[in-house]
Amino acid sequence: DMPLRAFVLFSSVAGVFGGAGQAGYAAANAFLDGLAHHRRSQGLPGLSLAWGMWAEPDGMTGRLADAGHERLSRAGLTALTATDGLALLDAGCADGRPLLVPAPLNLAAARAAAATAGRVTPLLRGLVPAPLPRAAASATGTGGPALASRLAGVPTPEQRRLLVDLVRTHAAAVLGHAVPRTIADDTAFNELGFDSLTAVELRNRLGDATGLRLPAALVFDHPTLVLLAEYLRAELVDTPSADAVLSRLAAELSQLDMSTVERDRVAMRLQALATAWTDETSDLGDDGVGAATDEELFDLIDESFGQA
């Protein structure tokens, strides 16, 4: 009943665009936006300003970690200074519409985010072109089959190095690190500042890069660069079975032109290998050879032939 000249509400852009992990906060701000519309429909003054991210730490942004700020910046939100905010407040009060979104956008960053996610937020479709579907985009990239093929052509240590570098590069991008090598191989992701949202973003990036469907808890189940890279290697690289290793060894031996003395020496080495293998697998229980990994087979072959 008060004769108000203005009824101005400060809400958040989260109520307009939504926000991962901010369902309650977004709903509360959407209520304020709805209240402004309701008052206007009743012939009363009403204006809701759905503010973007503030440069000065305050409210929700004051509780965001650096990774959270970086995530919002990559999505295309530009931080507002107090001076910019006051100017937008004046402009909003003079505009006449019930809901305005004073949230400066970095359209280049928004386009890059859309390309990475494979989709555009519906409210930005008039400003940001739709990216290629993920299936089409991955067909032109180096992920999936191309990465698996590259890994298949290099030794195991090089596979590990390539995948650690891949994980490091994407982890640095998620955290906003300009220099990926500053992330140590054995540093836990939670010590780097990863939370549930950035962990999902890293999972999505690695899924696009590898072509794999990765579990939601990927980063928490494999909490360092090395452990995560090893998981990816196991998923991407087809390791030969024990029978395949022995068949390949038999085929290679059959191609050798050896004298009787050389054959005897090879036979002694194979006998030493069998003896060493029996000793190594005696503690594996009833499974024996079947319980050993292919890598253990290769290591034992190398060790036995090297010693003979």
TrEMBL record:
Residues 161-236 form the Carrier domain. SUPFAM superfamilies: ACP-like, NAD(P)-binding Rossmann-fold domains. InterPro entries: ACP-like_sf (IPR036736), NAD(P)-bd_dom_sf (IPR036291), PKS_KR (IPR013968), PKS_NRPS_Biosynth_Enz (IPR050091), PKS_PP-bd (IPR020806), PP-bd_ACP (IPR009081), Ppantetheine_attach_site (IPR006162). Pfam families: KR (PF08659), PP-binding (PF00550). One of its GO terms (biological process) is antibiotic biosynthetic process. It comes from Streptomyces antioxidans. Keywords: Multifunctional enzyme, Phosphopantetheine, Phosphoprotein, Transferase. This is Carrier domain-containing protein. GO terms for molecular function: fatty acid synthase activity; phosphopantetheine binding.
